[in-house]
Design a protein that fits this description.
754 residues; mainly beta; Maltoporin, Chain A; globular
Amino acid sequence: MNNAFNRVFRPCRLCFLAIPLVSYSGVAASAEGAKRQLEEVIVTATKRSESLRDIPASIAHFDGSTLEEQGKLNLADYLQETPGVVVNNAAPGIMRISIRGIGVDNSPDATIPSAVGILIGDTSFTDPYIGNITPDLSAFDLASVEVLKGPQGTVFGGAALSGAVRYVLEAPHTEGFELKAFTQFSDVEHGGEAFTSGVAANIPLYEDKLALRLGLVSREYPGLYDNRRSGENDVNDGGGDQVRAILRWLPTDKLDIKLTYLEQDYSVDDGVFIADNREERSLDDFLLKQPNSHEFSLTSLELRYDFDRFSIMSLSSLTTKDRHSFADISATFFSPPPGAPEATAIFSTSSHSSEAISQELRFQSTGDWWVDWIAGVYSYDYEMYFDIYINTVAQDRATGGLGDITSLLPIGIPSLTRESSLLYAFNDATATEEAVFFDFTKTLWGSLHLSVGARYYETVVKGGYDGVGVLARAANNGQKVDIFKEIVENGVSPRYSIKYDVAENLSVYAQAAKGFRFGGIQTIPANEADGVPETYKSDKLWNYELGLRSAWLDNTFQFDAAIFKIDYKDPQIQQKTQTSNLAFKNNVGSAESTGYEVSLRWLTPIDGLAITFDGGEVDSHTSEAFVDSTGNTIAAGTQMPGAAESQFSATASYFNDIFDVNYNVYLSYSYIGKNFGDLAQTEPVNDFATLNGGISLSVDSWSFRPQLSINVTNIRDETAPIGGGSRDLPTGEVQSIYIFNAPRTINARLSIEF
């Protein structure tokens, strides 16, 4: 532990000696003219509006306006600066997140559902059956982002095994009309250029009863990867739009109705996001372009009615996701020689769509009760369809298959094409969760806070899989695949906590919480020789946490710390069959994770200078040995994927004004330690530091309040793989593949607000 401690805090001491190497995130002083203090942060992560410092749990909070000012466009840009959180961001919508080392496959193409829940408000976007699109909302007109560390099973059910990332949208208000807009130019070193623009308006419609908030963001994504075979650079440039509309109606003082619609899409003509070497973002394996597209939407209706002593809240949500992809997988079957014709290529095209309907009815105390309480019922219905078609270009053309191979959908494939292809398969599945939950908090003697909560749930997953073609028959003793299974599970996810206020600005807490993730049906034929089971069950974990929160120097200095231990049972892992190299899921062994996290916020005696530091360490490893599908023994003590041994982030910002011009200068330094993308530990990833900085100028006295920000990320242009894996080549060799962090990027942003 001493060596680990030194790895984290020796560089941190250097950061504090050189104040410019540390920065601000979420630090602000009180209103002008008032006493300088750290600002109180209110969150709704527990489905109550509470001060973050009153919650006995680890929560990171990012203010939307601060993210805008720093030019943050990607979720990964700020999550990677959060200790205990590891992000593998391959492409827009293709992201794997692990929290506190819980994740068994951090590769972006993993089909295992994420262990980390992604929520917009209280609506989950985490698919319970298969990995899918990860929403990556623009920070523009976003109220905040909350990162909840540890399982959230009591509050959010099977959507958040190891934690959750929660977007909080800016709500409409009736106080007056607002209009704001921005445009941002991004110039990427060794890559392309891109523009992102947006406009948002708050529109009162009727007195103080009705208001509408609209937002539109149009975004370009710069290309980062080169195709050495074709000689094209920055091939993966793409774009997409995001639309938000929220209508709020306050017919009485007691009733609040909010209707939300959100939609986001993305498309790219050549979605390459991997490299075959560690030195540069390039490869030469692809004979074909790889168009990809996806979109998702949210429609929700939220009603809240306040009685004298309690409130009732109803949330009805509909979410949809659609993804279409085309991939050149030739290198998996043969090594394309120089000048190989397009007709020799082997491709895969897939379509993935899902729809989920959720309903939550929640009751919550608001008046004078002997105990604060929340209770509710929850229902979730999910449908998913996935198909995949693998074939050679020549065979596809000869049998009249897809015709134009750049088509994204394998619509109308003739039977001959299906049977003669390498693989044609589809999967149809449904998943449901029914649950009741409660959470009680009792305060004794004004300083001791006891909480207990629990969620009883039942999940049902039904799946059908049909497959024909060479690979399907090879995995099923020469027969076509036609299976249908059902798995039913139930359980309880409890949460216990105790918090003691030692003094006015000093408290300690302890918490124990349980989480789970859906089990499911296999998406390839069961095969005893390959160790492929028909179904896999849910995995579960317990998180035990001790924490401290403190404020000093008249609330200008805050120091928080937490230590945790996680017991992880029956982890779901992705493996590949020996005979046909098809991916499947299985429960294997167990794991444990231990670590600590520290955080400080300091408004220094130098007026306008704020300093923050966040650091931590995670030791996440298997706790029992097992043999994987390839016959390799994974020893006890093997580091879990996505578990960075150490992380820290330090930031300093200076705020002041001159001649009515406000300026804010910041510099930040962050480090993420070495980890692996899979349990086989094929390739080490991460282990790099990032230096970011910027300046923002604004004029509040002008009617349109202009703001100009110049930000530079990865100033030193450090290049390191953030993800990777391997693929088996026909020669018998194993080829390593890599996904890299973003190179140095300059962002220039201009915004106005009326």
